[in-house]
Inverse folding.
């Protein structure tokens, strides 16, 4: 625990400095709360509106988790298919890349028209925005396998399925987790975008509803919670990487 605090003490120091300057600036310039609330006011809002914020946080968290898991399953499937078949790669990879050129803010309203309101459109938006880094990183990992190792496996009588499961999959895991860290951060953005476009609950909806009512403290409170969700899920992915891919994390620490 002590080493962890020492390691991240510069980041904590910067956060404390920013909060101090922010609080002092609002106080000195006498800026009204509806324009820029001080951190102390945001903290009090989180405390006083705890039940409301918790309810909306759980909704957003559910959208993030379900959308991320959907992106993970579909992403691993497509990455595996692309690496196992040149035909599939030539047929699908260009479309996967092209899918990222369409702004997600354009797709989200159409999902409401096609699917309707509810949880499903938000989950799909999260999956769409998280899907790309998972696929690309896992494909890169599978293609980074040493050709000599594959030749050795075939020489020893290994089948293509065995090379895939015993060589390509393990070697792609460090790349996959790199993609997962990016995807989990982007999934928070996807959930908020989905709620902005059309929703009746969630932190994104709460922000949209609070802004015209000049409840700026509540908007900032939602932003703080979203930041904690993103950082927390990022740390969770990093922790899981240490469990499932210990050789990769040990090599990073040594370097």
């Amino acid at each position: 625990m002590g080493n962890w605090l020492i390691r991240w003490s510069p980041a904590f120091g910067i956060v404390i400095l920013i909060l101090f300057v922010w609080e002092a600036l609002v106080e000195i310039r006498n800026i009204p709360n509806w324009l820029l609330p001080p951190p102390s006011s945001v903290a009090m809002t989180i405390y006083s509106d705890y039940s409301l914020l918790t309810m909306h946080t759980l909704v957003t968290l559910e959208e993030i988790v379900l959308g991320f898991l959907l992106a993970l399953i579909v992403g691993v499937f497509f990455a595996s298919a692309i690496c196992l078949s040149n035909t599939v790669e030539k047929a699908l990879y260009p479309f996967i890349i092209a899918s990222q050129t369409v702004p997600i803010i354009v797709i989200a309203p159409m999902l409401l028209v096609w699917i309707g309101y509810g949880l499903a459109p938000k989950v799909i938006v999260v999956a769409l925005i998280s899907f790309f880094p998972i696929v690309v990183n896992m494909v890169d990992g599978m293609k980074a396998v040493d050709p000599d190792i594959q030749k050795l496996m075939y020489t020893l009588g290994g089948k293509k399925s065995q090379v895939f499961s015993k060589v390509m999959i393990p070697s792609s895991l460090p790349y996959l987790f790199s993609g997962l860290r990016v995807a989990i951060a982007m999934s928070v953005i996807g959930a908020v975008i989905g709620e902005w476009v059309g929703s009746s609950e969630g932190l994104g909806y709460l922000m949209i509803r609070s802004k015209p009512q000049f409840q700026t403290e509540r908007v900032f409170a939602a932003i703080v919670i979203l930041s904690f969700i993103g950082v927390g899920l990022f740390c969770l992915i990093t922790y899981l990487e240490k469990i499932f891919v210990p050789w990769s994390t040990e090599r990073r620490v040594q370097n």
About this structure: The mean pLDDT is 85. Residues 1-31 form one domain. The CA atoms of residues 75 and 162 lie 21 Å apart.
